[in-house]
Fold:
Amino acid sequence: MSLQRFLEKAVSEWMSGEGPDSDIVISSRVRLARNLRDHPFPMLATESQAKEVIEQVSAVMNQEDFQAIDQFEKLNLDEVSGLEKRVLVEKHLISPHLANESRHGAVILSNNEAVSIMVNEEDHLRIQCLFPGFQLKQAWGIANQIDDVFENYLDFAFDERRGYLTSCPTNVGTGIRASVMMHLPALVLTQQINRILNAIGQIGLVVRGIYGEGSEAAGNLFQISNQITLGHSEEEIIDNLYNVAKQIIDHERSARRTLIEHNKIGMEDKLCRSYGILSNARIIESKEAATRLSDLRLAIDTGLIEGISAHVINELMVLIQPGFLQMYSGKDLTPEQRDVRRANLIRERLSSVLEEGK
Structure:
């Protein structure tokens, strides 16, 4: 494997699989933050200290119990271009922080890209597991397994009273961040989303955009995750998020039924108009593209439009991002050039899908 192997496809292999409730839950993620005892946190580490952490983490990759989990490859981000880092961010394989702010970072990726272990991000280790659909508990199972292997060989910074010690105080304790990426267009259209999101904030959960903290919920995609990491076990945190997400799934399904039952022709008109724009537009900005793709995804999931797989929408949501557009063009593009290239790409992809279905 090589860096190119992880850049050449917009959608990771794990996203091509079906998951429970995948019409609403795009993905489930569990991330664990860990630090090595007697090593400065990454933000304070010297170059030699950061490289020492990478060496110690890399040594674990050679252990049989680590290799039994999956096949992995390590990428040193000092050897990766800015554009390539941006593409890895757009695929959710590394964080914006690791791409833009971390010094002497690395990432260890599994063969199917479901596991991403970031080294020298805000913390020495960020173990991330991504599963398609609503599979929080499965993602936690793999993350916990990897964490146990690392703990067999590395001395983690741990306090009996405070738990795992982390760079950011909000991660102290379990160090776990669990999240579900949800597509909630019907709750937005029925104007229920603000009430639900406000209620979520009252029970220790937080809502972010598609690329985590600081990003907006483009295309009606909302990332819902735990906010509290101290005072509860990992299982309690997972169960709380799971139960809340299950209720949101039910509310979204109910809202979709209401929209179809009470105004089917209006919904068909709205969603098919977006399909028409995507199929014919010559210029389209990223925000509008995300909104129109959300409409098309809703049309597919409710059966109003047939012959297009939801996986195509997953693919396009990544392909239309600035990094991918420029990588495939082989050069830097101005915002206006990206808008033209984005429209061309969407038209070509939708056209090819229809041709394949004939």
Observations:
- The two ends are 35 Å apart (CA to CA).
- The first strand starts at residue 25 and ends at 34.
